[in-house]
Design goal:
five-stranded parallel beta sheet, alpha/beta, 5 strands, 6 helices, Ribose 5-phosphate Isomerase B, Chain: A
Length: 149
């Protein structure tokens, strides 16, 4: 499974740590930035890159990190087919995968340390979706939209 990972300046250090952890555990990882610390850069850019990559690479997963994880979660969920979940513990990560087939994990650089991120990412990546009719139906409805003038 390929993992696309990205972060803004606030999540850069944690992203690099998590990227190295994933690589050392045999995952194929594509780093979508940020690559250097630029204070005040926008969380939108790495979230857009990861969301597009996951959408185009069926079966892949994404991980996004910013200060609170809220911004990257909101940005990634703007893309059809992306189900980004902000998880702050392993139980939440397991449920996001089992019940909602989440394909992008969003983590907070401000509220989590390196060990917590590793544990949560490991559970997220190793947990399978429980393919029940009601769950598939609900997931399919996520991409319904209403057009506005």
């Amino acid at each position: 499974m390929k993992i696309y990972i990205g972060a803004d300046y606030r999540g850069l250090e944690r992203k690099n740590q998590l990227r190295d952890f994933l690589l050392s555990n045999g995952y194929e990882v594509s780093d979508e930035g940020a690559y250097e610390y630029h204070e005040g850069d926008d969380f939108n850019d790495p979230a857009i890159e990861v969301a597009k990559a996951v959408r185009e690479d069926f079966g892949s997963m994404g991980i996004l990190i910013c200060d609170s994880a809220h911004g990257v979660t909101m940005q990634a969920n703007r893309f059809k087919g992306i189900r980004a979940a902000h998880c702050d513990n392993t139980e939440s990560a397991a449920l996001a995968r089992e019940h909602d087939d989440a394909n992008v994990l969003c983590l907070s650089a401000h509220f989590m340390n390196e060990d917590a991120m590793q544990e949560i990412a490991k559970v997220f990546l190793e947990t399978n979706f429980t393919n029940l009719e009601r769950r598939v139906r609900r997931i399919n409805r996520l991409d319904e939209r209403e057009d506005y003038d």
